Amino acid sequence: MEVQEQTAVGDAMVRGLVRAQLLLSVRLAVLTLAILFSIPLVAYLIPAFADMTVVGVRLPWIVLGILVYPLLGGVGWIYIRQAERIEQQFVELVDD
Question: pLDDT, tens digit, for every residue of 12-34?
Protein backbone atom coordinates (compact mmCIF):
# COMPACT_ATOMS: atom_id res chain seq x y z
CA MET A 1 0.00 0.00 0.00
CA GLU A 2 2.88 2.33 0.85
CA VAL A 3 4.47 1.79 -2.57
CA GLN A 4 1.22 2.31 -4.50
CA GLU A 5 0.42 5.52 -2.66
CA GLN A 6 4.00 6.76 -3.14
CA THR A 7 4.49 7.67 0.51
CA ALA A 8 7.89 8.33 2.08
CA VAL A 9 8.03 4.75 3.37
CA GLY A 10 7.18 3.35 -0.06
CA ASP A 11 9.76 5.60 -1.66
CA ALA A 12 12.39 4.35 0.78
CA MET A 13 11.45 0.76 0.02
CA VAL A 14 11.77 1.30 -3.73
CA ARG A 15 15.11 3.10 -3.26
CA GLY A 16 16.30 0.13 -1.22
CA LEU A 17 15.33 -2.24 -4.04
CA VAL A 18 17.13 -0.13 -6.63
CA ARG A 19 20.20 0.18 -4.38
CA ALA A 20 20.35 -3.58 -3.82
CA GLN A 21 20.15 -4.27 -7.55
CA LEU A 22 22.74 -1.60 -8.30
CA LEU A 23 25.15 -3.09 -5.76
CA LEU A 24 24.62 -6.54 -7.25
CA SER A 25 25.38 -5.31 -10.76
CA VAL A 26 28.44 -3.34 -9.63
CA ARG A 27 29.85 -6.32 -7.70
CA LEU A 28 29.41 -8.65 -10.65
CA ALA A 29 30.83 -6.09 -13.09
CA VAL A 30 33.92 -5.58 -10.92
CA LEU A 31 34.41 -9.33 -10.60
CA THR A 32 34.03 -9.84 -14.35
CA LEU A 33 36.38 -6.99 -15.23
CA ALA A 34 38.95 -8.18 -12.70
CA ILE A 35 38.96 -11.62 -14.30
CA LEU A 36 39.09 -10.24 -17.84
CA PHE A 37 41.90 -7.79 -17.07
CA SER A 38 43.88 -10.42 -15.18
CA ILE A 39 44.30 -12.60 -18.29
CA PRO A 40 46.51 -10.13 -20.23
CA LEU A 41 48.26 -9.20 -16.98
CA VAL A 42 49.15 -12.85 -16.33
CA ALA A 43 50.35 -13.16 -19.92
CA TYR A 44 52.54 -10.08 -19.43
CA LEU A 45 53.95 -11.20 -16.08
CA ILE A 46 54.42 -14.87 -17.00
CA PRO A 47 56.00 -15.11 -20.45
CA ALA A 48 55.70 -18.91 -20.46
CA PHE A 49 51.90 -18.55 -20.35
CA ALA A 50 51.99 -16.03 -23.19
CA ASP A 51 54.18 -18.30 -25.32
CA MET A 52 52.03 -21.43 -24.95
CA THR A 53 50.22 -22.39 -28.13
CA VAL A 54 47.26 -24.63 -28.80
CA VAL A 55 46.66 -25.56 -32.42
CA GLY A 56 48.98 -22.76 -33.47
CA VAL A 57 47.17 -20.04 -31.49
CA ARG A 58 48.63 -18.50 -28.37
CA LEU A 59 46.88 -19.54 -25.17
CA PRO A 60 45.95 -16.01 -23.94
CA TRP A 61 44.06 -15.42 -27.20
CA ILE A 62 42.19 -18.69 -26.80
CA VAL A 63 41.27 -17.80 -23.24
CA LEU A 64 40.14 -14.29 -24.22
CA GLY A 65 38.44 -15.34 -27.44
CA ILE A 66 36.71 -18.57 -26.44
CA LEU A 67 36.75 -19.32 -22.72
CA VAL A 68 35.42 -15.89 -21.75
CA TYR A 69 31.95 -16.63 -23.12
CA PRO A 70 31.09 -19.32 -20.54
CA LEU A 71 32.28 -16.86 -17.88
CA LEU A 72 29.98 -14.14 -19.20
CA GLY A 73 27.09 -16.60 -19.47
CA GLY A 74 27.67 -17.68 -15.88
CA VAL A 75 27.81 -14.11 -14.62
CA GLY A 76 24.56 -13.37 -16.47
CA TRP A 77 22.92 -16.44 -14.97
CA ILE A 78 24.07 -15.44 -11.45
CA TYR A 79 22.83 -11.90 -11.98
CA ILE A 80 19.39 -13.04 -13.06
CA ARG A 81 19.01 -15.45 -10.14
CA GLN A 82 20.18 -12.88 -7.58
CA ALA A 83 18.08 -10.05 -9.07
CA GLU A 84 14.99 -12.27 -8.97
CA ARG A 85 15.80 -13.18 -5.34
CA ILE A 86 16.08 -9.48 -4.44
CA GLU A 87 12.78 -8.73 -6.18
CA GLN A 88 11.09 -11.66 -4.44
CA GLN A 89 12.27 -10.36 -1.08
CA PHE A 90 10.89 -6.93 -1.99
CA VAL A 91 7.52 -8.43 -2.97
CA GLU A 92 7.38 -10.35 0.31
CA LEU A 93 8.22 -7.16 2.21
CA VAL A 94 5.52 -5.19 0.36
CA ASP A 95 2.93 -7.94 0.88
CA ASP A 96 3.47 -7.91 4.66
Answer: 888 888 999 999 999 999 999 99
